Amino acid sequence: MARRSALVGFAAVAAATAAGCAGGGSAHPRPVHRPVRAVDPSSTDAYASGGEPALLQVMAHPDDDLYFMNPDAEHLVRAGVPVVSVYVTAGEAIGKNWVPGMPKPVLDKAAYSAARHQGLRQAYATMLGLDAFTPWRTSVLDLPGGVRAETNVLTNGRRRAQLVFLNIAMLSPGQVRIPALWAEPGAVMRSLPATGSPCQDVSTYDHDTLVDVLAAIMDGCRPTVIHTLDPDPEFQAHDAAHPKDNDYGSCSDHRDHTPTALFTWKAMSQWVADVTRRERRAPRFTTLAFRGYYNQRWPYNLPPSVVEDKLRLVDAYGGDPRWECGNEAGCGDYGQGGGRALRSRKAWIRSTHHRYPGPQLALDTDRSGRLTAYGVLGTQAARWEETAPGSGRFAPPRNLGGGPLAPTLAQVTDAAGRTVLFGLRFARLEGQGGANTREIVALEQRSPGGAFGRWRGLGTPEARPVRGRRVGAPTAVATPDGRVHLFARTAAKGLATRVRSPGGGWGPWQDLGGASVQDGLSAVLDAEHRVHVFAAGHDTVHHWSQDAPGEPLTFQPLIGLPTPSHQPGVVPASDGSLTVVYRAPAAVRPVAYRFVPGSGGAARRSAVDAAAPHATPLREFDGYGAIGAGVLAARGGGDTVVLLGRATDGRVQIQQGLTNGAAPVRAPAGPLPVGTSALVAGVDQQVCVAGMGAGAAPWVWRSHPTSDV
């Protein structure tokens, strides 16, 4: 089946798989849980061949995608990647669609849900480049367990969007909410038909039914990119300075976002396991998870022009009671229209954060210059090898197993020349009172360039599973003395480490403390082979380092660095200096800060005085998001700092040098990057950038100083 046909034809697939999916159409929950069908970490089945790009997004509410998954989603859609957006709840909330100046309406949850659906149609029509009130084709999907759902489809040339409304009532009979459907055995919820919807059936969901429905949608549309919400939001202290607002409990997110993400990850794992068993090939897709109300709690990381792009779609979704859209229930979610998102102190629109930051690919090169890339494909670790040095083409991926894994891997080459990979595994993802745990895992080569051994669990820095779920994506660095230093952000938002000795044994987790930082760690070695770790805090860039090689890392505060909005790029130079590059909150242009770290007691007293003389504004490198950094080591000396980032339109750009004459070069038109790309800088002005494309295949761009497009 062609990809574009599959997007609107997966109802047939879903109906065919409904047989044997018990519980969906019955009001009585099953007394016995079925076994969890999940990815086998030891499975290394070959991957399915590549297909046309397709994006699947799963949200709890209408507008979660517009606030939290853009600009990533819009960039893909505008590039011609068809999207299927699934909304799990009806989004009926308090059931009143109202803004100041309007007469207060009567309670009507079905109408409010329908108005939000209309708002989404307006936003996606705008995203597709059409008039906001363009008519959509509406129909009903038959899904596993007797479930029925509304679907809307709109096409504009190569651009295509499909909206799927499961419409589970946010508050079902018996005061049951989505968190209970995830966690409590026997919980049952029902759908709330929206006013005017072609689907007026009331569907019944238990835990397994929702997993089956999401897995069936995945099986029907065969996405190459999946967007989810945050399955493990961070803890948030609520006080006068940090009011609780819409947060749930002690976390910085909505009560529906977290279980919706957990259901999505469980469905992904089940789908991969089922497809691999049925077809003897693992499905090929990449995943991005997005933070939610986290955006309110950390410095804003999007510049004004990108925020305006998000606002345009949110305003189309919010609509206006004066609009004539043809929907009697309402023309959008009025409380979100008219620029209100920009004026809200919650400011969700001003940032977009990935739950698992870092490049989608980890890159390595051999002596000939041939690339090897490691990433997570279909929730499992994968390895690609370039067919020949400089070819820019990769052989088919090799499945290294280890899943289900979060979307990013860390990779180092130890002193013996062996590759070591680190990932964050969803070790148990059961729900219904069962285990819900994470662990950091490692995979090591037995010999340089040789076969890999078995995945090894390294636990997390946290003793309690509820806190272990909040650990960050692993980062690592290898030192010439044979050690490998592993780092992860803790549930307390500090830094923890675990060190592999030269003999191969792992020491215990150690909490390095420090102040509150975001996930996204940058670890490097300086010219003296001391380890440095940098992370973005609320106030400045935070820093841990060794006084001398082989000694423990300690928190060594930096002096004079302004507030960062994202993970800093860090690059060491042969003269002993370190350069830290990042954007201030809401800034479009970054600044580079160069310093020479102290040694011994001087390092402990003050790692850096990054005053104005050491700051270099980058006046042309406009963009947003994390910045990668590397160094070109020219023969005969003379290091050149190389920067990698995204321009405001989402395209990849690099810049060689920090002088006033340096200017960014954009990658040629072609594959749009999914997530963050990676950089390798070598000798003789060779710069290589690689990333994951929308078709779940890596792309390569090698740039020279004269490159331009």
TrEMBL record:
Keywords: Signal, Zinc. The keyword Signal applies. The keyword Signal applies. It holds the Pfam family PIG-L. Residues 1-21 form the signal peptide. GO terms for molecular function: hydrolase activity, acting on carbon-nitrogen (but not peptide) bonds, in linear amides. GO terms for biological process: glycoside metabolic process. Gene3D superfamilies: Fucose-specific lectin, LmbE-like. This is PIG-L family deacetylase. It comes from Streptomyces buecherae.
